[in-house]
Amino acid sequence: MASTDKTSTRDRLLDAAMELFYREGVSIGVEALCRAAGVSKRSMYQLYASKDEVLAASLERRAPEYARRLALDPDDTRPPRARILHIFELLEQASTKDDYCGCPFLSAMVELKNPEHPASVVALRVKGALTEAFRVEAERGGARDPQLLARQLTLVFDGASARAGAKAETLDGLTTTTATALLDAAGVA
């Protein structure tokens, strides 16, 4: 029975952490986190050595859904260009939601400003996987420099995500138009 309670406590803690860190930022206090999760600080510290570990675990928990949403399905028969543009269409759709606060992985890295922080390590890996997916598609599409194009696409994705998350920009086709120009310049079919 104790392991079921611990799993339930962990789930509540990580669910609250995912929501609070995304909505409020990584500076949220341990007390506020535990209160939102309905767990004691003692229980949190029995599961995790620090709030930093909770943040890293919450990002790790979010990573599979993020990857699934942005995944370039290997069974997708569309050309690489269409597959890449689809990711930007998904970003534009997500950015229209009232609760959109940008990419949670990018937000964590920007707030933490420490690439060695446990949460930054998770975020860098997740963002690196997106860049690698762009590189693979760019290579498949015949880009002259797939690595450069992948970095450019990631830069557009992250910049658009940050600006839309800060409510400083409405994406309305802006990212797909920008990505299209990059794909054209790189020679991607």
Task: Describe the model.
- The protein contains 9 helices and no strands.
- It is mostly helical and 189 residues long.
- It is 74% helix and 0% strand.
- The longest helix has 23 residues, at 2-24.
- Helix 1 (2-24) crosses helix 2 and helix 5 crosses helix 7.
- Residues 7-66 form the HTH tetR-type domain.
- This is TetR/AcrR family transcriptional regulator.
- It comes from Streptomyces phaeochromogenes.
- Residues 29-48 bind DNA.
- It holds the Pfam family TetR_N.
Keywords, please?
9 helices, mainly alpha, 189 residues
Which runs of at least 5 residues are low in confidence (pLDDT < 50)?
A: none
The biggest sheet amounts to: none
Secondary structure tally: strands: 0
Q: What average pLDDT do the residues reach?
A: 92
Structural class: mainly alpha
Gyration radius over CA? 18 Å
